[in-house]
Amino acid sequence: MRTLISSVFVSLDGVVEAPGGEPGYRNSGWTFKEVEFVPEAYALKGQEQEEAGAMLLGRASYEAFSAVWPDMEDFARYKTLPKYVVSTTLTEDELVDNWGETTILRSLDEVAALKETEGGPIIMHGSATLGRALSDAGLIDRYHLLVFPLLLGAGKRLFSQTDKDAQKLELVEHEVYSNGIQKNVFDVVR
Asked: 17, 60, 116, 132: which has the fewest Cβ within 10 Å?
């Protein structure tokens, strides 16, 4: 069984919306506008690229990342990985042709089936709506959280407000950087 990892930039109050400058959100770009850049705080991103066997994205994150990542040297490894986009509306002709193999999944059941295949970990970047649904369905195995020392108030949240049983997490790695960013890696305890 493959490990599904949710990799997220998150504010201290749980907001994950528009960390990279996506339009339409009041605090868009908060990861680089409000916090000093310290390279070592992002080392986890390079490690994820090297260890991942596939990428999983929701439609909105796919559309945002596929517009820029295929031509960025910093994300060159992702060009070679198989990508899976979970969407009920995306069509094959809307996929970009310069980012390698991409498969559209239509349901969480298809994500569960993907996890049963052979291969390395599946990394999911961004994808707030998908992430909440996968978490609620018990399909996420690990969280890679870069927690920013910011309170953003309104915005899309990392976790849903679904009334459910407690889910225990085990902290397996952590570090704090000089700019206040905290790396927290949690495994979901089953």
From this structure: 116
